Amino acid sequence: MSVSHACRTVSISRPVYYYQPDVDRDNHVIAVLLELCEKYPGYGFGKLFAIIRRLGHKWNHKRVHRVYCLLKLNMRRKAKRRLPSRNPLPISVPESINQCWSIDFMSDSLYCGRKYRTFNVVDDFNREALAIEVDLNLPAARVIRVLDRIASWRGYPAKLRMDNGPEFISVKLADWAEYHDVELEFIQPGKPFQNSYVERFNRTFRNEVLDRHLFFSLSEVREEADRWMVEYNTERPHDSLGKMTPEEYAERAENSKYLL
Q1: What is the mean pLDDT of residues 242-259?
Q2: How many CA atoms lie less than 13 Å away from 15 in the CB half-sphere?
Q3: DSSP tag of 161
């Protein structure tokens, strides 16, 4: 019996008869996924797939997700019980860089148990990390010095958003803001969601740096924070920015301004 006759007898097409499954077709996808997971251990599927597309691969998201699940790379997230907000207030979205910076402190400890702090500065427009200052103590004078250092290459912001910490309500910072014509916007006590841009940045920084590494000295913290900040600004795709990095988003906004 010929192949054509046999296929008609069992009601299958000739391409199906001749089809040979490619058992190694996913090897390239596996290699790329494992390499990216090793380089970005804190990224979930969405950000990994965005980077895969940025690298030029045209694989379908369903295929990549299938391989991602088979490799058991899924990241488990602890579900939080969130109470519904009765009167949610949307946070303002800046229209250009330096319109508003958000600042905040974080704290952690070295392997020896000694506490240290980080002073984080974020531009609300493109979520760019402008500084992560690390030291055992960060008084108001140090905060001003960091802000002046950023302004030397970026310019001064129109507004600073912050909580009511002692360093932020100091007379020194108020005099500095008045001298440079910077508005100080304090959030309401007990409402950190009003400073959500830097709070979101803090969570990412803690998950991918502070909780992932064991530091023995401040120099190690500073080195890792500087390395991660470059990655955050130039490599990490942000969902809120249309899968672009903060650097790309700022460049697109600058080009659009010139076109207008």
Answers
A1: 84
A2: 0
A3: E
Looking at domain 100-258, its CATH superfamily turns out to be Ribonuclease H-like superfamily/Ribonuclease H (3.30.420.10)
CB neighbourhood size of 9 (10 A): 9
Q: Are the beta carbons of 224 and 213 closer than 8 angstroms?
A: yes
109 contacts 211 by C-beta, under 8 angstroms: no
**199, amino acid identity:** E
pLDDT digits (tens, 9 = 90+) for 72-100: 888 776 665 555 554 555 677 788 999 99
User: Which pTM value belongs to this model?
Assistant: 0.80
Among residues 190, 128, 201, the alpha carbon closest in space to that of 163 is found at 190
Every domain of the chain with CATH number 3.30.420.10 lies at 100-258
Backbone angles phi, psi at 131, to 5 degrees: -165, 145
Q: 24 CB contacts (<8 Å, ≥6 apart)?
A: none
3-state secondary structure of 177: helix
In this structure, what token pair is assigned to residue 173? 């910072």
